């Protein structure tokens, strides 16, 4: 890889790092991806509404939350046509390289930042070298900036190769809130994909390590739950209320007590609560944020079903109404062993890679599983690989950073794997 | 009152004391009352089925619990016709003295003992003087033996007086388990009653004191609740069970948390629990015994309704069924002030009475309120009076005893009050 | 009463109405009271720190909450000496009229507004006649504006009368949050008071009605409770957390289940909750706002003690810490019957009063009970009287208003009662 | 194997089947084993107290539960010396075959029946062929009768072989209640054991299958928990009680809500509850039976520690005392891979074995793990093998039966494995 290419990858990554945008608000990020794709010269660039199933989006913020980011993007000079196509929470890009007959290979990366103030410690390289987040309170603390750069580098490399077939890259919005995966899976561009590769950097793996395909991402659903009762004066007429506080407390206690399942691991958590007005008023409304997980999609659904029964019964018990809303969710889909082998073989031949791990448990959740599931259902294969990168501190911490040496490794492994796929029978 | 009469009262009371029988099993007691009434000579003696509404009986024991008492009664020589009429839990007697035109006055006493082993301490008079309970494990520890004696004495006194009208005496079974009051209230003999007097001895009032009419007996309901789920191996497949233990625990916690009511005092208690089979099995069945009380009947019913909602929702929450059964209940009815005044005036003129208290709060529950309610609904007046008696220890304790001097006072106050009622316009 | 006096009462009340200030932030209100007292000419005016026991203040807002009100007061031209004396949440005034030998008579009124946006409906008189609140989001919706005006009018009337003795008026801050009563009770000026009168307008009583002395204000305590545990990833390591959410839920369930008490009415409520960060994180911190009440101070304390046991045990159960802080409280103290009789007699002779009710149950809580308790403990008498006023809607609603005709009635009853007290033997 | 030997195995198994005895009450079973060992002629027979650590016994029944079984054994002619040595719940036997220099090899079988009435369906072979349980309500429903027969057969076979070294057989009592394993592990006879084999029949494996060594028996602890509060009249003075019912309900809810653990599977169950006296009495005493399990011993201990915290805090919350007693427990110990390989190799060469499975998850709990742990700690190897047997219905059901063809297979595999061990270097 030329020094220029290497330099461009680093510059790109730093440019995205400076402007992190949270889920469904990646207006500026979308714009910059489009510009880069135009520079590279691909056969099709589809944006926002064109690549998403509007109804399948999850965890979309309301207008008040979208507006400031839209305004900021406008001020930063984002093109009006991009703003139009991404309006109302429709960020994201799909790029297609069409090289005639051959398999349809796809790559998926994510593109959103998170709500976390970035460190200004001089030991934190982005601070020292001037590419720290310019969006106060937000940060690329999970490496999605590196993912975008790698994807752009991979497109360029594939374009310059002997690749035959179709190569489609998905820049998916709103991964952190499990909001964009389903919408992109149902947006139309996955149709006919034979091989899907997804990538993540780091996760404890150092530069030089590649995990060929992860397994056991947890199936997950995130719910917002509102109990509505009736307020009353707690001293004068407690019996006239319908106590949402008691309903919520009963629900919480019983949620954690949902039976363990013989088929495997389940999880449930109520992580946030707020409601009521004052100490002397029977609480009328309480809102919870909860999640359920399972080692399999079925186990997650078992837990969600049990949780919903607990919620409805707790409301009924205290004469309240309850509205559980599934904000986002993702199934469990493991990497395909055959595609994993292909990635492993490619990685073993890649400069800079000194350790190839066949598979590893993912532990957390990832909504790329929607895309993987879709591809599997149509007869295609999918794998989720990890490209190691030295990171000084954990993901989702203010001093997270990536080793930019890994960008080049990522591009090599991905572009070679795409090429290798195109040589297989679809 | 002659020495003979006084002696007969004491003998009678001691005879009943020796043979306490629990609710709906007062076969021998019924028989003895019938014999005494025949000796006295009244105009009508109705027994068992003739005086009860079968369907309105509550807390009736099953055959296994009735049988040994029936057998014991048979062995003691109880008359076959009494056994016939009281079969299947239909104890109780009504005696009518018919003296032509005039008001219809009624007296109600209770007749059951309780499950409590009587003390054999030589300081306990029944033990010392040879009239301790001969039914092991059972005892007249609330003075119902004295009530029966007083009622018989009162009938005799009224019969010998210038009383004009109808005088009906109700010997009610199963008061301790709140089981007989409703059945007697609906048994037919209360029809047309203008004045109803009920009586209790003691309750902390010494010999010489009379409370003319109590108020605020608590309304009460006693429930048996069974949760039914599905058992499962707690280690291998906890998810396959429907955990009646969790349902019961949720119900108990929320039962005690039923909101206090602005209209007054309420109570709820789960006093007994049993269920499940072994530590490694998800519990299939749990049974609770619970009660609710209220300062008024409406407050008791509020609490019962809330309790039932809690029970059904707790069952639903854990995929169980629940069956709450109201075993017995009693409303709140206060003594009528006018009748109370009449009793007070009579008591003030009675030899041996040195303190007349107009009214007092009752505190507990009493199913005579069913009879009082019935009389009130038909336009009659009812009062529940207390005849003081020195009692060495509390009611419902193994060394409870009454001061037999109070028997005569009770007969005087009751018979004079009955006579006084007959002089009033109905 | 002259037309001028009547006019001044109305003007004063409207002036206070325009500038409602919440508890411990009554800087402008204090300033205006001081100015009026100087106009009237009393023998001593003590302000803020001079009249309060600093340590006995409760529910004092922190600096961030005080500052904007201080700034607003400064801009409105409040005198620097008043700002000095009221600094750091020390509002309130005491005015003394010293007329030589004679009893020490005292009057207490409150002076804070509440957090409630006032209606701008043209049917709402303050809106129609231009004296609606100028402090957005705050309102005199409980008549404290009228109380201040009445107190000033009473001081003026007493000063002009043949009153002999000492007359001390307490303008108490922070009544709505039960924050100021104890601090003023312990501030020194109550010493030697023989008669204490407190007054409230309305509470359902129409213009022309006076309640001579209320009874049964509920004893109350308001608590803020913080559970602190340890956060953890709910999917990856739930066992590493100490779940404050579960601790709070357990505490809430058991708080409502604190046993009812045989001595009388108790109440408990958790009216507000907030905590945790996200659905996938074990909650580290949860804050509750709770209150306990009792028909007597002892019953309130029983409930508070039980609540604290529940809180500590719930924290212990989930390996969390808990800090319950009593924010404010008030005991139960009834009006003295003798002083009540004096007020009733005075009221019966007052023009405009057509109905004098001897006593009524208060139902809610009031921290004037701290002052009443103090006076009682020193051998003095205290009564809390109600001056009826037609109010179109309930207290604490956006369209609450008082009938200004009642201002004059209030001044007459209060000043005549003060005068009458001075004629009694102390 | 000769027809005679096969016949003896079947006869023996049926003899034991006819007389099932529950844990620590295997008096007759012990006696019969001793007789058979004397017939066979071994070098040492140790009984009861001689083979158990008295203090390490768990779940020992009290005298009232032991007595009827002792009496029954006496009547059946059990030898006085056996009754002496097994007195007070000290059943069990150890048999030693001493053949000079060589490794010390051990075999462990269990010997208790369970509380379950055996089916008298004519399709149930023990019923049809006359060897159904003669102890009403008790049954060998888990194959321990077959285990004893196999062990006796194995001793005989080893004795007749070229075995060199020491062969010790443990007939362990009270396996079903996890009561005997620890006591035997600490009884002295395990000292110096180089190889320990344990065996179970069936568990879903058909005749002809052998599982060479199981893994993942769950670590388990069984607790009895008693809450003690104070009773009170639920209507008149609920505040005077300390409500053990509320404490238990709080404990149950929170027990099931103990956090899942990142290291693996945990279980908790409250399977039995009983307490309180009547609906109108605040419950004074409630007893629970609970268990905790874990995929590892550490996970079980985590859950037990959490459960104990829940119990103590729930008691404290309701002013009660609580006494959790660990009745029995067992650690997790997996079969040693090397010894498993040896067993597998032997099994593959055994007539009648057509399927050898290297390992399988055990799923449940087994207190042989105490013996395995002891052997491992001293440097020896242990394996727990399964000998398949067709069983018409599940273990622990009234129609459970074993295929007697498997007895011979078991003896062959066990005796050959013992012999093979003796050929290894210890």
UniProtKB/TrEMBL annotation, chains A, B, C, D:
Top-level taxon of the source organism: Archaea
CC cofactor: Mn(2+)
Gene3D superfamilies per the UniProt record, alphabetical: Zn peptidases
InterPro entries hit by this protein: Amidohydrolase, Bact_exopeptidase_dim_dom, Peptidase_M20, Peptidase_M20/M20A_hydrolases, Peptidase_M20_dimer
Binding site for Mn(2+): 142, 144, 176, 200, 396
BP term (GO), one: folic acid catabolic process
Domain Peptidase M20 dimerisation: 221-314
Coiled-coil intervals: none
Keywords annotated in UniProt: Hydrolase, Manganese, Metal-binding
Keyword Ribosomal protein: no
GO molecular function, one term: para-aminobenzoyl-glutamate hydrolase activity
Gene Ontology cellular component annotations, sorted alphabetically: cytoplasm
Name under which the protein is recorded: Amidohydrolase
Organism of derivation: Natrarchaeobius chitinivorans
